[in-house]
Amino acid sequence: MRDIRRIAWLLLAALLLAGCAATRKQADALQRQQYAWSAAIRWGDFEGAWNLVDPDYREANPMTDLEFERYRHIQVSGYRERGAQALEDGTAVREIEIGVVNRHTMTERSLRYTEQWRYDADAGQWWITNGLPDFWRGE
């Protein structure tokens, strides 16, 4: 009887550790994906950033060449995380402040942007679900 209990406890511990490892793997994958995203935005690689957007979003909201051309008229001057949290539904949210310079007028302004991330277990990847930042909101 003691051996059965010991085996049951060992199996339970193994399952819990496996769950923690999977969660840790997802957290590491999220951090890598967020780094790739922020680097693409900071360096003006909006086509590269577009590849990190959720495929369902890309299909529902395709970008035109004209829309990508608009992004060539700005330079990102700053990209600062202001807060982040993992939600109970398995998604993640990150608040960002982005500095933007208009290349033609050389005026700088900043805006807030909320990144929303979801984990795709089938692809084993995190996707940003709300598209590229809208630098022209209200203009």
Keyphrases for this structure?
single chain; four-stranded antiparallel sheet; 4 helices; about 30% strand; signal; Nuclear transport factor 2 family protein
Write structural notes for this entry.
Keywords: Signal. Residues 1-27 form the signal peptide. It comes from Luteimonas endophytica. The protein has helices spanning 2-42, 46-50, 55-60, 65-71; strands spanning 74-86, 92-102, 108-120, 125-128. It is of the alpha+beta class and 139 residues long. It has one domain: NTF2-like, domain 1 (Nuclear Transport Factor 2, Chain: A). The protein has a 4-stranded antiparallel beta sheet with strand order 1-2-3-4. It is globular and about 80 Å long. The termini are far apart. Mean pLDDT is 86; it is low at 8-22.
Explain the layout of strands and helices:
Blueprint (H helix, E strand, L loop, with lengths): L1 H41 L3 H5 L4 H6 L4 H7 L2 E13 L5 E11 L5 E13 L4 E4 L11
Antiparallel strand pairs: 1-2, 2-3, 3-4
The spatial strand order of the largest sheet comes to 1-2-3-4
The CATH topology annotation reads as Nuclear Transport Factor 2, Chain: A
CATH first level: Alpha Beta
Q: Which structural class fits the helix and strand makeup? A: alpha+beta
Q: What is the gyration radius calculated from CA atoms? A: 20 Å
Signal peptide: 1-27
Keywords: Signal
Organism: Luteimonas endophytica
Protein name: Nuclear transport factor 2 family protein
